């Protein structure tokens, strides 16, 4: 790829970046929902303290992408891949792919056997990435998000 991208675990240093990188795409295509506000304003309490993980992609040491693994409450799933966002200024550099591969690897490392995600069909590049990572479309389970019109799962 040639671009100096590093993936590092989340720390409080990246709290604003985690929120801002997600708000950027959510506001562009949809509107903020209550579950977004909870997760994005309280990543430590909502994600990390529950056994989740957040990856941060750094380009020249500046946060340009984020992705989270949230412990899943749905039967049969260990984690939800969630809150993946890459800065519009850094798209097309393969950062989403690196984040996705990192997050899937982390899920395996944590002993997960199956993960799922929710998205929207308008986000074609994201859906294409998820398919390349091995995710397959699945039947709808109840979602806290109005914008969710597709759900996918990955057997690890």
UniProtKB/TrEMBL annotation:
Phylogenetic lineage: Bacteria, Pseudomonadati, Bacteroidota, Flavobacteriia, Flavobacteriales
N-acetyltransferase domain location: 16-156
Coiled coil: none
Keywords in alphabetical order: Transferase
Keyword Transferase: yes
Species of the source: Flagellimonas yonaguniensis
Protein name (Swiss-Prot/TrEMBL): GNAT family N-acetyltransferase
């Amino acid at each position: 790829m040639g671009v100096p991208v590093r993936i590092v675990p989340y720390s409080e240093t990246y709290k604003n970046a985690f929120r801002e990188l997600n708000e950027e795409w959510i506001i562009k295509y949809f509107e903020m929902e209550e579950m977004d506000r909870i997760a994005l304003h309280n990543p430590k309490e909502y994600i990390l303290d529950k056994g989740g993980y957040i990856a941060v992609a750094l380009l020249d040491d500046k946060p340009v992408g984020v992705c989270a693994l949230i412990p899943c409450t749905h039967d049969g799933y260990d984690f939800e891949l969630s809150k993946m966002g890459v800065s519009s200024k850094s798209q097309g550099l393969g950062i989403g792919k690196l984040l996705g591969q990192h997050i899937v690897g982390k899920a395996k490392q944590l002993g997960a056997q199956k993960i799922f995600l929710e998205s929207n069909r308008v986000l074609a590049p994201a859906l294409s990435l998820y398919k390349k990572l091995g995710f397959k479309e699945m039947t709808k389970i109840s979602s806290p998000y109005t914008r969710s019109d597709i759900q996918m799962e990955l057997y690890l």
